[in-house]
Amino acid sequence: MAKNIASQGTLRQASTVILARECHSEFQVYLLRRSLNSGFMSGIYVFPGGNLSREDHDPKLFEACSRINSKAVSRLTGNELPFEKIFPFAVAAIRETFEEAGVLISLPGDNTDVDLTESHRRRINDDLEEGWFNDLVISRGMIPELISLARWSHWITPELMPMRFDARFFITIMPDGQECMPDYRETIDGIWVTPEEGLMRNFNREISLSPPALITLHELLNYSTLDGLEKAIEIRQWGDPLFPRMIPSPDGALILEPWDPMRYLETDIETKGLESRILPVGQPFSRIWNCKGVWLPVGI
């Protein structure tokens, strides 16, 4: 699989964060709607996240965060990766979550005095300068709360997509005392939904989910409570990269997920009559179809 992925051209490294919170006896996750002016997936609902930057690889930043304990390291790396490789993804996850959703996943440092409301207002007004996050950590003593991030999944964007990403999906519990807020630049709306509600709203064409968000919400249906989810993520590993296959069609693109029986077969895939094969929310699937701008699970 690695050879196939490497042969598909340049991949942008990116991080995504699934923010979860308790809601009565269930749990909700936070989704942001991308700006209608976005060059990629405009108007689509996604989890907070974005590209890694040069600053996320700063050795000084790595050194400043070296105080984290071994539990945080193992929680991020699992049994598969050196900490140095996953560290910039974790930093980008925390930085992008603040930039897009106004939530800062951090521990207070001795010299830190961060006004979250003011900092996010500056983000909305585009006043945050490049490297602002590194300045908070290196110069002002803020400590990114890496221990709060846990592994969820590793996605590789299918070939034929206009932009392609090597993306790590982290999951964390919403920090106390903070509120999510879109930046109204890259993102124009934010909603808290249970996994079932998010999938139903997508099924009813009320919102449009990105393919990874659709898959992730379906996976989260396996957990009925936040406590059950927290127990599951303690032992979850990164696993192999999820590398779907996209098949163009005049009726809308079809994506075969890695577990589809025909994902790696060199054979034609029938794309006619997909509307009659749309599956209800909660039913297992291995294919999703872009039906007039909304990705929906379909049967084989």
Structure notes:
- By secondary structure, the chain is α+β, with helices and mostly antiparallel strands.
- It is built from nine helices and 13 strands.
- Strands 1, 2, 3, 4, 7, 8 and 9 form a seven-stranded mixed β-sheet that branches.
- The model has no long low-confidence stretch (mean pLDDT 88).
* Rg, Cα atoms, Å: 19 Å
- Share of helical residues: 25-40%
Order of helices and strands: HEEEEHHHEHHEEEEHHHEEEE
How many domains, in number, for the residues? 2
- Total number of beta strands: 13
Entry keywords:
300 residues; alpha+beta; Nucleoside Triphosphate Pyrophosphohydrolase; 7-stranded mixed beta sheet; 4-stranded antiparallel beta sheet
SSE arrangement:
Elements: H1 2-6, E1 12-23, E2 26-34, E3 45-46, E4 49-51, H2 59-64, H3 70-77, H4 83-101, E5 106-107, H5 116-124, H6 132-138, E6 143-144, E7 150-156, E8 165-173, E9 187-193, H7 195-203, H8 211-220, H9 226-235, E10 245-247, E11 254-256, E12 287-291, E13 294-298
Quick rundown:
The chain is built from nine helices and 13 strands. The protein has 300 residues and is of the alpha+beta class.
